[in-house]
Amino acid sequence: MKIFADNLRYIEEENAKGLPYKLKVTPFAHLTNAEFRMTRLGTMPKSRSFTGNGANTVSYEGSIEELPAAVNYVAKGWVTGVKDQGICGSCWAFSTTGALEALHKNLTGELVPLSEEQLLDCSLSYRNQGCQGGWMSNAFEYVADHGIDSEKDYPYKSKFIPFFFPIHLRCQHNHTAVIAPHSTRYVNVTSSKPALLAAIALSGPVSVAIDAGSRAFQHYGGGVLNSPCNTTLNHGVLAVGYDLEAPEPYYLVKNSWGATWGDEGYIKMAIDDSPKGICGILLAASYPIAA
User: Fold this and answer.
1) 33, 131, 255, 279: which one is catalytic?
2) Which residue blocks in the chain are alpha helix, DSSP H?
3) Among residues 146, 173, 219, 235, which one is catalytic?
4) Is 219 a catalytic residue?
5) Could you give the CA distance from residue 128 to residue 149 in angstroms, rounded to a whole number?
6) pLDDT in tens, 100-117
7) 235 is catalytic
8) Cβ atoms 196, 281 nearer than 8 A
9) Which residue ranges does UniProt annotate as crossing the membrane (predicted)?
10) What CATH topology corresponds to 2-290?
11) Which of 91, 122, 131, 279 is catalytic?
């Protein structure tokens, strides 16, 4: 109870400051920040693919003023409902499927939830580590080679497997893929604000990695998060839009901690001018494209 009381006091004190964001009692209100970081976040594996399946790095030479002032793929119908990864360190898989779901919607008109479990079970040879972590670009490389099933055909079973649990996964991909092998590839995004905004505006939702370990992120409840945070990447999420004309410009980001965290599972993260972006959001962005 002391931890909860301490967190509640912190939430109330921060909310009294008139900040552009609000905190609330989230599913992590019973955890200290150290416990939250230890059980819900992890270090992204060092091995990240930059070259597989013809991956290019895309940049943007135009001005931000030439881009749409606001983009929202949730409103556009390209984004599936918020999912919950549980205590498994599978954020990278949820970020990957979210980007692929949007691409599939754009290409076919069908919004189909895709299988995170397949990525956990089957992409170990692509330098991912199941519930112990992974990279979205590595997962995109796997999907380019093998395709991916629907969530219905290959359901998520790892919700209660802690990230530190030994890898024991067994691939059960049966090749009834929603997205066929060799039908996609992916690109990495140059680490700059214009490049990320252009990728979102011109291509669709973008997989990004961030440092989600701040106390404000743990208890986030709405508004535009602009509090200081580190840039040690430890969490994969999906950038599904932005708004440059809001009083506090922001990226709209879909998380995978269920709909009771944040703003119905989403967070608005401030668009700032720092070289790495808020919480490192510019450092490791990538997205799939049709082959």
Assistant:
1) 255
2) 2-15, 33-40, 73-76, 91-108, 116-122, 136-146, 193-202, 215-218
3) 235
4) no
5) 18
6) 999 999 999 999 999 999
7) yes
8) yes
9) none
10) Cathepsin B; Chain A (3.90.70)
11) 91
